[in-house]
Write a structure and sequence with these properties.
CATH superfamily of the largest domain: Metal-dependent hydrolases
CATH class of the largest domain: Alpha Beta
Shape: globular
Distance between the termini: 26 Å
Strand content: 15-25%
Number of domains: 2
Oligomer: single chain
CATH architecture of the largest domain: Alpha-Beta Barrel
Radius of gyration: 21 Å
């Protein structure tokens, strides 16, 4: 099946704008791009781009596609099946926002990834970690002081809790066995977990090195949820590939990240969104969470700007799932606030994100690339806020199939 997209302006990372372009898609892939007439088969589907701007589908490097706020009360009340059905609207919202690939940092299992691949529902393509490794009493250890465990459990989904070298080694292997593309480790406290502080590191260096060593046997990257400065440095020492959040990073540590080729996924949006909107009134831990959140918001943006100024590789991630899905591209505005140009922000969520997740067939519009393409009517380089409103994303193609078309609704 061929699709010919005519008369569009291509905005590609690391490239100049190209107007009056035609794009030929065959199956999943882009076969030809030209300002001249493209010869096609007789039954080609033709789409008049009507001078729209087209960009590669965006990549969100930190999401939780099944999650709806990580509220323990909902884990208690809902049947397990709701946990999975949540992925359907969340995925639709993510696609509508122009995001065609995500890196899920906890909760999506192999079944969700396979369901997307098999076309059982419309969803972004996924890279998954299954579940993060957590130490006893650490961030995302969902055993409450009452003794009740709020962790979602079912066959084939490993528990994340582990302590000591032998346990973290076995847990890393269990997560890989369950289908993880990368390993995620909770290396500091966090806002959402009671009785933990984001200022303190979690797991010791020997445990962290063990996790990385086992991951390397299958060329798997290791990612750290980490706010703590001490924790970030321990992760660098252990050989981690990325730091998620990085709240208390400083200049010296930023230089170390550059020297050791460690990527930062700052997730600036999530903390600001929670600060402005708060937590549900029925959340019995809301006050504790908000007190920690205030400490994060005070310094996060300023410290991430330091990292950017020092040349740390930064890619876009939103922590969607902690906050409602579909706001993903708002993160681009926060990246511009720390000093990125509009094109740099786009690169962080396209070509640089693709390199980060190890996918060379997404992240740009080019010959033999996956036909992941979004259409907008105005130039986002003139006003990046255009990208933050899903209604401005007029069409979305994913693997050559049209998965959104607002023109049909008009």
């Amino acid at each position: 099946m061929q699709t010919l997209i005519k008369n569009v302006t291509i905005i590609n990372p690391n490239d100049e704008l190209k107007d009056n372009q035609n794009i030929l898609i065959e199956g999943k892939y882009i076969k030809e791009i030209s300002s001249s007439k493209i010869h096609t088969k007789e039954n080609v589907k033709v789409i008049d781009g009507d001078n729209n701007y087209v960009l590669p589908g965006f990549i969100d490097c930190h999401t939780h596609i099944l999650a709806k706020g990580f509220h323990k009360e909902e884990n208690m009340a809902n049947p397990l099946s709701i946990h999975f059905y949540n992925a359907v609207p969340h995925s639709r919202q993510t696609i509508d926002a122009g995001v065609t690939t995500i890196r899920d940092c906890g909760s999506a299992d192999l079944g969700v990834k396979l369901a997307q691949k098999r076309g059982l529902f419309t969803a972004p393509k996924l890279e998954i970690c299954i579940t993060p490794l957590v130490m006893t009493g650490g961030h995302f250890d969902l055993m409450l002081p009452s003794g009740f465990n709020m962790e979602i459990m079912y066959p084939g989904f490993p528990k994340g809790r582990c302590d000591g070298v032998s346990e973290v080694l076995k847990k890393t292997r269990e997560v890989k066995r369950a289908g993880a593309d990368f390993i995620k480790v909770m290396c500091s406290g966090g806002v959402l977990t009671t009785n933990t502080s984001h200022e303190f590191s979690q797991f010791n260096l020997e445990e962290l090195k063990t996790i990385v060593g086992e991951a390397k046997t299958t060329n798997s990257n290791v990612s750290a949820h980490c706010h703590s400065l001490e924790g970030i440095n321990k992760c660098i020492d252990a050989g981690f590939s990325s730091i998620e959040h990085g709240t208390f990073i400083d200049e010296k540590t930023s230089k170390r990240m550059v020297e050791n080729n460690v990527t930062l996924v700052p997730t600036l949006l999530v903390h600001q969104f929670l600060y402005e909107h708060g937590f549900p009134v029925w959340d019995i831990y809301a006050d504790e969470k908000f007190d920690k959140l205030k400490e994060v918001v005070k310094v996060h943006k300023e410290n991430i700007k330091v990292a950017y100024d020092e040349g740390v590789n930064i890619v876009m991630g939103t922590d969607s799932g902690v906050i409602p899905h579909g706001h993903n591209l708002n993160e681009l505005l926060y990246l511009i606030d720390i000093g990125m140009t509009p094109m740099e922000a786009i690169e962080s969520a396209t070509i640089k994100a693709a390199e980060f997740i190890g996918k060379d067939d997404v992240g740009s519009i080019g010959i033999e690339k996956c036909a992941d393409i979004i259409f907008i009517e105005d130039n986002p380089l003139d006003d990046m806020a255009i990208l933050t409103k899903p209604n401005n994303i007029m069409r979305v193609f994913q693997d050559g199939a049209e998965v959104k078309n607002r023109y049909e609704l008009m």
